[in-house]
Structure prediction request, 451 residues.
Amino acid sequence: MAKKIVALLLSAMMAVSCLAACSSTSETDTSAEDTTAAEETEAGEEETEADSEETEESVEADVQQGDASVIDALIDSTSGTVALEVWASEEDQAFTQTLIDGFKEEYSDVDFDITLGAVSESTAKDTVLADVSAAADVFAFADDQLNELVAAGALQAVNASYTFDVASENNAGSVNAATMDGTLYAYPMTADNGYFLYYNSSVHSDVSSFDAMVADAQAAGTKIAMELGNGWYLYGFFKGAGLEATLADNGTDTVCTWNADGGVDVAQAILDLINTGVFVNSASDADTITGVQDGTYSAVINGTWNAQSFEEAWGDDYAASKLPTFTCAGEQVQMASFAGYKLVGVNAYSENVAWAMILAEYLTDEDAQIARFETRALGPSNIAAASSDAVQTNPAIAALAAQSAYGDLQRVGNSYWDPAASLGATLAQGSVDDIQALLDKTVDAIQTPAT
Prediction:
């Protein structure tokens, strides 16, 4: 695909000279000329190929450096209407349309027809892979979908930078999340798809440990909530104790060690929390928000997407922090988490791949990420955007940044989710006859090969 992009750019810069040469060529055909041409072609084949390779390398180097002349050449060679389709989440429709309008204004010399569709980042992979050739040219997706999209050949590698260097201007975690086998395949858009602790500071004075938080909640008659019956959140307890759930080498199945030494201690720690009477299993995001709004919950484990609801409910007492420690086999263990990123991909089958890549850069550059934070309070992956005072002083973003030291990329197979959720729901009941047997059954199900 890199050769395809270079070839397109070469064609753009050479189109005029090629047409001029063709128009002045004689149509007279002689055998002598044919013989001479054949001999010259054979003799100069290696030199021509070498010159072509050198020219391609030169053009690709210009693109990698973000040379404006490359975009100018692309603009000059673009005729007719450039049709592009973009997919963004339902919540991002208005904001993304604003960015698209800005892109069209930025490149007003080109006639663009850009349509915007609503596809959730969480289900983008399934929608794209249903028919890659018919999918959007540019689409947003959660980083845990990268492997399958790459394996299906759906993503154009980010092997050219037009307006900024993607790898150097975004934080290392987001770049790693967008990379597979050493190749960057997507454009980091946000660095906030993780979870941490929200709390009412009028109730909780010490949020360093669950022990301290439980005592405060008991005194206030409130509760601490978490979606325990959700493998995304449950992971934090086991990983905190050093037990793994990670993608197997085949890129599809899951390797899980939750039933190894220490696993029973983690499960017992969760049961102990449940049996305090104040640590409860929230059924969903909606339940979590309602519980905060009606005063039932004084602390919750959740993500940035609900920050506004919690802030409105708690007002001046609204606060956030990294996750607390929990007591496990008599020791304090720091709770871990999944750390996730939202990415923007370019469809490898796009008919306008160069313009799709430039649009993807526009949707994810520093200015776009600052605007996305100001409009939707989504945390930037762009280093410069993330260092702004507004971002640094945002309680939720600051808490997520603190938790990131204990966060892992979400890399598990599809067989992980249901058994993990079932385990969490069982532990939330507060009593298990044989913890080891339960963990063995869970791990067997998680490690079941994909079919």
